[in-house]
């Protein structure tokens, strides 16, 4: 009976500790950068013992990657997104514009920005961390674009010879570079334009019934 | 007469010191990162006094930015490029592929890679440095693409309503992101594909006399 009563308490305590550790790790890396973030520092800020952290994770990189995954999941749920698929209304341009506008919002969220920049900066000079960061956090998101572009290939909206893993970079990478390197403003107009340029190309199209970006009318899909 | 003889010697000494300072700054930032690079450290490694550096520059950021500009100029001259213009053979796809292949070579050059990564990483978390880095080093290169795309608009190869400053990001930014974040391999095939996708678009084109990427034949321009 004592065991029955203590189990839920222990679970609640664990859950509370886990969340405190995530919060502490994200705040600390944003303040002092990745190299100066330590398990000791995270534990002290979270108000837990070092052993509590080492019971669940083996390194600060592991703690941080999970904290980022958790933050991304929570943000997606808060915004009402399904985190594991892109919208598929049958209108590729509209769906891509919708998702990229949501990404613009996310990139401008201060809670996301500082820790993400600290981890991204370290990934630029630490190849092993960079590759883990991409494999765990970025590539799964990029695969959602791959899935959406494949479905557009099935319906004939995208050429069958296009490699979706490269094609997605035409609109995702410009936004990423503007965020990483401050090469230009990040706005809805900008990401809408990227989608139009990527889908229809920079060279003139011969006249045809295919709608072009300039005569396609309002691009936002109707959403409930 | 003594003054006449010493002047060329002083110039040679200055030039030698300047080069030693550039080399020391690039080597040091590659080894210890931007935050731990100091004027003292650069001076000591270059074998010059601190005052020599402060006579020419006011901060480590200034030294590094000039060292990078110098490295880029030297690399361009060594490769036989004209550093201030993109080729214009009248074949936009071929010219872009040629320049991006040269960029692939540059990104893979170890002399370029380590110091560039150190500065780029710091720019991700230090907005002021990031903006200076872009304004001094990156934006002038991007403007060469703007010029080339404008000339392609004049000849009708690019749609007149396209904004060249955004359009260039469709092929430049994917390469930049793969380099910065290890999101994929960097090859000639890859950059050639980016150019084809950007120019002709991901959606099918109606049949027309316009060549498409799949039937355009060998893409490399004939070069002397």
UniProtKB/TrEMBL annotation, chains A, B:
<keyword id="KW-0238">DNA-binding</keyword>
<feature type="domain" description="HTH tetR-type">
    <location>
        <begin position="15"/>
        <end position="75"/>
    </location>
</feature>
<dbReference type="InterPro" id="IPR036271">
    <property type="entry name" value="Tet_transcr_reg_TetR-rel_C_sf"/>
</dbReference>
<dbReference type="Pfam" id="PF00440">
    <property type="entry name" value="TetR_N"/>
</dbReference>
<dbReference type="Pfam" id="PF16859">
    <property type="entry name" value="TetR_C_11"/>
</dbReference>
<dbReference type="InterPro" id="IPR001647">
    <property type="entry name" value="HTH_TetR"/>
</dbReference>
<keyword id="KW-0805">Transcription regulation</keyword>
<feature type="DNA-binding region" description="H-T-H motif">
    <location>
        <begin position="38"/>
        <end position="57"/>
    </location>
</feature>
<feature type="compositionally biased region" description="Low complexity">
    <location>
        <begin position="213"/>
        <end position="224"/>
    </location>
</feature>
<keyword id="KW-0804">Transcription</keyword>
<dbReference type="InterPro" id="IPR011075">
    <property type="entry name" value="TetR_C"/>
</dbReference>
<dbReference type="GO" id="GO:0003700">
    <property type="term" value="F:DNA-binding transcription factor activity"/>
</dbReference>
<dbReference type="InterPro" id="IPR050109">
    <property type="entry name" value="HTH-type_TetR-like_transc_reg"/>
</dbReference>
<protein>
    <submittedName>
        <fullName>TetR family transcriptional regulator</fullName>
    </submittedName>
</protein>
<feature type="region of interest" description="Disordered">
    <location>
        <begin position="203"/>
        <end position="224"/>
    </location>
</feature>
<dbReference type="GO" id="GO:0000976">
    <property type="term" value="F:transcription cis-regulatory region binding"/>
</dbReference>
<dbReference type="InterPro" id="IPR009057">
    <property type="entry name" value="Homeodomain-like_sf"/>
</dbReference>
